[in-house]
Amino acid sequence: MRTASCSCGQLQIEVNGEPRGVGVCHCFACQQRTGSVFAALASFNVPYKVSGTATEYLRTGDQGAQFLFRFCPICGTSLYHTEIGYDDKVSIAVGAFADPSFPAPTASIYDVRRHTWVQLPHGTKTFSKDP
């Protein structure tokens, strides 16, 4: 079992097992949402358990997919999201696990918007946009 938490601890999500995948996204929406130059996300299979109260934000991606982001209404941490129509997985902000041994990303999407100084782990598969 793994637990990810917002900065103040009010909102938490628990998942079981290893991630389906770990990736980074360099799209402008993720850069603005995180306040960083990319978002680091880990995808997990259901079930998952959420405790605390989340505020939701629905965003439509460049290719029409809809993502429901959940964040803490107290500290503002963007903790996890789901994609509408894909109820079998959840994506969680890697940093929210506060685990330096968490697996490295294997995929980089919207690489066309990656800041030139960001170096990816060796062997990371890159996609110009969202595959």
From TrEMBL:
GO molecular function: carbon-sulfur lyase activity; metal ion binding
Family annotation (InterPro entries): CENP-V/GFA, Mss4-like_sf
Alphabetized SUPFAM superfamilies for the sequence: Mss4-like
Key words, A-Z: Lyase, Metal-binding, Zinc
Domain CENP-V/GFA, chain residue ranges per copy: 2-111
Family of this protein: Belongs to the Gfa family.
Name recorded for this polypeptide: GFA family protein
Lineage of the species this protein comes from: Bacteria, Pseudomonadati, Pseudomonadota, Betaproteobacteria, Burkholderiales
